[in-house]
Amino acid sequence: MLWLSEPTPDDIEKLAHGLETLPLSYEAGLLERVDDESELPRHLGGWFVDRFEAEIGRGDADFEAARDALRRWQQFDREWTVLAHDPVPIEEGAVVAYAAEVLGTWWGYGCRILRVVDVPTRFGFAYGTIHGHAERGEELFLVQQRPDGAAIYSLFAMSRPGRWFSWPGVPIARRAQSRFRSTSADAMRRAVTVTSTP
Question: Around Cβ 174, how many Cβ atoms within 10 Å?
Fold first, then answer.
């Protein structure tokens, strides 16, 4: 969906409801076929491959705050993204919709949560694009606590254009994806700092 001005959270909620019965725009399980690889090329079988990680805190309190921030979708807490009023629960099958501003226009997107990671030192989820999304692919959002205590926020994504009009805009889309990775880490770091500071 396309808006010429910033949509409201109610607009995003309506978008999410309209996507609930639509299928994914690709064959699910994309990341599971490759996510054990320590290093991957930037392109793999026609897919763009992106890995990103950043330290967002240190110690048990920061890690728990990072888990909570991911549950509340704080990685989307920026001026150029809009979510619905209530955070979507992190559970398999849940549909999340959001809008992002690109070159002065607001684009609506929808994804379905495919799997959840929830173990003592790792928490996150992978979602996949729903039919109609400008892109096709999957993205894994993860927070983990390393043995040295560092709380790490990471993204792993494989994507490619999903609509005919997306191909000419590949350079713009790739810049937007890069911007999302760095600013989402900043948003997670802010959320951890606010939550874990006495």
Answer: 13
